[in-house]
């Protein structure tokens, strides 16, 4: 990845009649970056992608690619290429002709053949030119769609939910493959997804969208550790959200009184709007210790009762009902010893370090 901006969105807005699908979008994407637009269905991610591609013009603002304003530049004249959710592969054509499609008539046959062979090598389908597209598996079809886009040598590859049609195992495998491919080619990838894990495993940075607005743009680790508010916190991974009162603040340390856990000191989150007296805190389920006896080495503890146990194989999830909050607290424990230590109805203790508690800023309720 370089420091050079390859895509710049400046105050971009898209309206359909009076409906605002996207607004106030300002975004700089770096050359060679893997960027994901993440958000729930209908939040406007595809709309943003389509404005970069040139399938839609913004109602306001501008899209720059490689420093050039794209206003009025049709999709086929932009240095971008798009891979669609449905792949749009022609079933009656063989693999080679599918991949060559965009180059037909634009280059001599020998060059096309050479580039088809190269593109198929890139996606690990080397030598499959003559295979009928109808005979391919889901993962192979996805790779043909990628090869067909890559053969055009775009500066930016736009991907709209590229893996959503694949089953879980294959999807996870393709996530690694696509990330490796992107890194070895050094092309900028912009991917739309509603799958937080997909976005986190593949991207250098993620832009989280809600209701047409880009709420936070950060690395996966920062989004997870320092979400800008409750909505982003709950969308990226699981989060226990508890109300708290701000008692005092010294520098970057906040003294708070949190529901269930009581007084503790936590770190200020630079990504939230100023914390108010009534604030929220977030606790990731894996940051809590669960024990039969009161844990000694945790400054904050609370007693509770197990209300649910879910065995996931690699970890175990417990729901713990505690006094001071209506929703049970979710705890995730790695399955080190192949045992489920607690059952529904057991009395347990939870232990917490202030350092792992996330300041979610002012309460919006
Ligand atoms: P999904 O993951 O479901 O595709 P998304 O986040 O990509 O969702 P968009 O496809 O960008 O969302 O759509 C954003 C909003 O704009 C939706 O409410 C959608 O109904 C609306 N919308 C999209 N295209 C049009 C259109 N051509 N005319 C009117 N409304 C549209």
From TrEMBL:
ABC transporter domain ranges (all copies): 7-236
Any single GO CC term annotated in Swiss-Prot or TrEMBL for this entry: ATP-binding cassette (ABC) transporter complex
GO biological process, one term: putrescine transport
Keywords in alphabetical order: ATP-binding, Cell membrane, Hydrolase, Membrane, Nucleotide-binding, Translocase, Transport
InterPro entries: AAA+_ATPase, ABC_SmlMolc_Importer, ABC_transporter-like_ATP-bd, ABC_transporter-like_CS, Mo/tungstate-bd_C_term_dom, NA-bd_OB-fold, P-loop_NTPase, PotA-like
A Gene Ontology molecular function term of the record: ATP hydrolysis activity
Claim: Nucleotide-binding is one of the keywords in the record: yes
Keyword hit for Disulfide bond: no
Catalytic activity: ATP + H2O + polyamine-[polyamine-binding protein]Side 1 = ADP + phosphate + polyamineSide 2 + [polyamine-binding protein]Side 1
SMART domains reported in the protein's UniProt record: AAA (SM00382)
EC number from the UniProt entry: 7.6.2.11
Described function: Part of the ABC transporter complex PotABCD involved in spermidine/putrescine import. Responsible for energy coupling to the transport system.
Entry's family note: Belongs to the ABC transporter superfamily. Spermidine/putrescine importer (TC 3.A.1.11.1) family.
Oligomer status and interactors: The complex is composed of two ATP-binding proteins (PotA), two transmembrane proteins (PotB and PotC) and a solute-binding protein (PotD).
Protein name: Spermidine/putrescine import ATP-binding protein PotA
Taxonomic lineage: Bacteria, Pseudomonadati, Pseudomonadota, Alphaproteobacteria, Rhodobacterales
The gene coding this protein: potA_1
């Amino acid at each position: 990845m370089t420091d050079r901006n390859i895509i710049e969105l400046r105050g971009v807005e898209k309206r359909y009649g009076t409906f605002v699908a996207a607004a106030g979008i300002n975004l700089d994407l770096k050359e060679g970056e893997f960027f994901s637009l993440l958000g729930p269905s209908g939040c406007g991610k595809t709309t943003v992608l389509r404005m970069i591609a040139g399938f839609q013009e913004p109602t306001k603002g501008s899209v720059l690619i490689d420093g050039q304003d794209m206003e009025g530049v049709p999709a086929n004249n932009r240095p971008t290429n798009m891979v669609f959710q449905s792949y749009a592969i022609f079933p009656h054509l063989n693999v080679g002709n599918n991949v060559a499609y965009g180059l037909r008539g634009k280059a001599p046959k020998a060059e096309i053949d050479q580039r088809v062979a190269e593109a198929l090598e890139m996606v690990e389908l080397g030598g499959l030119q003559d295979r009928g597209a109808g005979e391919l598996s889901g993962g192979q079809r996805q790779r043909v769609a990628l090869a067909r886009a890559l053969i055009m040598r775009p500066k930016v590859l736009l991907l709209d939910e590229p893996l959503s049609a694949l089953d879980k195992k294959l999807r996870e495998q393709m996530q690694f493959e696509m990330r490796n491919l992107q890194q070895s080619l050094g092309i900028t990838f912009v991917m739309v997804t509603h799958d937080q894990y997909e976005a986190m495993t593949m991207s250098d940075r993620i832009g989280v969208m809600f209701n047409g607005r880009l709420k936070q743009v950060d690395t996966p680790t920062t989004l997870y550790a320092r979400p800008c508010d409750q909505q982003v916190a709950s969308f990226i991974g699981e989060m226990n959200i508890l109300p708290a009162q701000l008692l005092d603040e010294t520098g970057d340390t906040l003294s708070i009184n949190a529901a269930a856990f009581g007084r503790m000191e936590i770190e200020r989150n630079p990504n939230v709007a100023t914390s108010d007296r009534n604030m929220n805190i977030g606790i990731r389920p894996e940051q809590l210790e669960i024990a039969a006896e009161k844990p000694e080495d945790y400054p904050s503890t609370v007693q509770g009762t197990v209300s649910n146990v879910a065995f996931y194989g690699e970890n175990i999830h417990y729901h713990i009902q505690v006094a001071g909050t209506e929703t049970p607290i979710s705890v995730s424990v790695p399955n080190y010893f192949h045992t489920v230590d607690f059952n529904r109805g057991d009395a347990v203790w939870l232990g917490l370090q202030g350092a792992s508690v996330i300041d979610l800023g002012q309460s919006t309720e």
